[in-house]
Amino acid sequence: MALSLLALIVVPLALTPAQAEPASGTPAPVVAAPSSQAPGEETAPPLSQGHYEEALIAESLARHGRTLEPSPEGKVLTEVLIDTEEVVAESDPYPNFLNLFHVRTREEVVRREVLLVEGQPYSLQLADETARNLRGLRLFSVVRVVPVKGKTPGTVTLLVVTKDLWSLRLNSDFSAVGSLLQYLRLQGTEQNLLGRGKKLALDFTLRLDTLSFGQSFTDPRLLGSRWALTESAAVIIGRESGKAEGSRGSLSISRPLFSLSTPWSMSTSVAWNVETNRVYRGADIWQLPFPDGEPVPYVYRTEEVAGSAAYTRSLGLRYKWNVSGGVGAYHYAYNPPSSSRLSEAQEDWFRRNYLPRAEDAGYVLLALRAFEARYEVLRDVDSYVLSEDYQMGHWVSATVRYAPPVFRDDAHFAEAGLAARYRWRWGEALTTVSAAGAIRRQLGEGAEWNNRHWAAELMQVSPKVLGGRFVARGLLDVNIDDLFDRVTLLGGGNGLRGAPADEYSGKRMLLVNVEYRTAPVVIKTVHVGGVLFVDSGSAFNDRPDMVTSVGVGLRVLFPQFNVVPFRLDFGYVLNGDRPPIGSRFSFAGGQLTDLRPSFLDSPL
Is 340 helix (H, G, I), strand (E, B) or coil? Predict the structure, then answer.
């Protein structure tokens, strides 16, 4: 079966970005023309030479007998042509029989995302937005929207060219340092069920202590409407006991902002998570240093249930203002398991210093998201040749939440969070500055400030140097009086390559990554690039003690099957503990600079 053949092609899981919201991915080296801009020539070099998307456009123009329209703006749109390419095209180096096991995306799935209307003037802005929406579906390796000459003089036709990603696949997300597999998620997925854009998956997750088996289903266009449905459920089994330890799941129904002109959106969701958490350092459970006796294992029982509903009103076109109001409630409980056999003193110390805060609360919220609706399409970046959308200019998100004492007096609080980002170009260079902060005020008896948390990140991509790019990232994440006692672990593939896995811990982190990414070598459409890197970082509570490593890496992209590369890195620590040689390798999906605190985008 094709599934067994393609099980060797491990594809990193990717989250689908909000279609009318700015892309939150980390920027990278090369800035290209907007997605609807036609290529300069009607023919392109072979795919193996790296002109992957341009060659597909040239083939589509030849099939339809059309020529590019150099000045389409304002002309009447008389026709929309949809050209959906198979996963394996004639010019690809893979056997065509693989297409027998893939249902090509149906034309209506592509057509319903087109925002331009026949009989109306052509709009470059709507053409670009159409391409972003289609790429956001994560069904295609290539999406290009180009204007071509209409059949009648003075008119224009829209040509939408897509190339399917392989949909019946073994998706994965994983983290390995040397021989230690810290995390593995395998998802047997039909990402494009019967070519209709729906996703059905069976999920397997392996952690150091547990296995989980589950399923999920996503329909982004429920019954052909603009409403979306997502559901998931999984059972969690302890690896040592072989018995069920808990479960997790979610259900969400929403009507997203599917275009910049969509006036409103709405969402409702419920989720639960019941499990035993074990915090590891390397291959062993972290033994916490209880000051008056035996160490305390970092193990606790989690019970979390949450539900929410929100309505958003969207204003503006070039400068967007999305105002949201909502309500929600949650139950969070954390307790040491009886199997830990802690004394009263140990349990009290564990709760005060390490356990997350147990809390039941209901709340109302008000949120504002403002951004400039200006986008760039980047190529030869994280994915080398495939188009990636990035929002430029400012992006700001502010949220205020108030929880009255509905369930308990100590769950009476008000909190606020603010996140901001600005991204701009300097010729071929690209700079992104991000910052976020949050704070809570406990109300009622014993009122005090807590949950103070802030973070900042600077990302810089250089112009071309010897055909490649330097990429530098600096990150500072600071937690102060955190009620939930979150701890950051650093070492290995999570930012400090070459160091022992999760060797360093603290409530604050300072991390600097500098990479030189070479231009890729293209071998029958497979893109292979190299990386030289320097990492320096510290996870700490008071003062940082920086550990530095240097190393080399490899990046490989299969554009027919995934949109981000695999990374294999080898690091050498200059001034800290060095693990065995095999443990200095790390292997994962995506670029290292994609790993960043979610707090920078959602501080609450």
Answer: helix
